[in-house]
Amino acid sequence: MARRKKIYEGKAKTLYEGPEPGTIVQYFKDDATAFNAEKKDVIEGKGVLNNLLSEYFMLGLGQVGVPTHFLKRLNMREQLVRSCEIVPLEVIVRNYAAGTMSKRLGIAEGTQLPRPIVEYCYKDDSLGDPLVTEEHIAAFGWASQQDMDDILSLALRVNDFLSGIMYGVGIKLIDFKIEIGRIYDGDFQRLVVADEISPDSCRLWDIKTEQKLDKDVFRRDLGSLTDAYSEVARRLGLMPNNPASITKPTLIN
Description:
This protein is an alpha+beta fold and 253 residues long.
C-alpha cells in the first residue's frame, strides 16, 4: 500500500491518512519508551508483534460486542482504523496493585485489589499524564457524564474479556490502559476503544512464576522485550511453539 500523508507521529506509532475518507493507517514502530520518554531504545520486531497482538485483541472485542476503531490489518506493521476524535484521557483498569499505584498507596506489587479499580489520567506528555478525577473531567469538559458512564462500562467489559483470554493461557492481567475515541455518524456520537491493546499498554505476569511479559521488562531491564512479547503471542496461538530458529517475529496468517 502506498504511503500517504503523515497525520501524527507518537512514541510508538505513526498515523497516516487512510485510503478512504474517515480512515487512518496506523503504523507500529519499533521504538520503546518509558518514564515519559526519558528512557528510549529501538527494539527490533516490537512493532510487528504489537500490530499482531492488537489486531487479535481488537477482533476479539468486536466479536463480544465491544466497539473498536479497528478495521483490518494491512501488513506486518500497519492496520487500517476508523478516524475518531480521541477523548483526552488514559483509562486505566487495575486488578492488582503495581507501578504507580503501589508507589502512591504503599501497596505491595502483586496485591490483588478488592475489585477492579478504574483510574483516569489527562493525556498530556508535558505534564506527565497526571491522574485526574471525574470532577476534573466534568469541570474542564473533557467528557460528559453520559460519556463517563459509557467509558466506565467499556473499560470493565474490556477487562472481563482480556482477563479471561489471558487466564486461559496462564497469564495474569495485572492492569491495562486504553484510549477511547468518538465516532460521529451525522449528529449521532458513539464511543469506541481506540489506539491499541498490546503488552505496551498492559501489565502481564505469568500466573505460576510471576515473570513479567510486558513493557516492565524494558522499564526495569529484565531481559529481552521481544522474547516477552513473543511469548504472549505464542501462548495465544499467534506464533509457532518452537521459535528457536526464528530471528524475527513470524506471523501465521
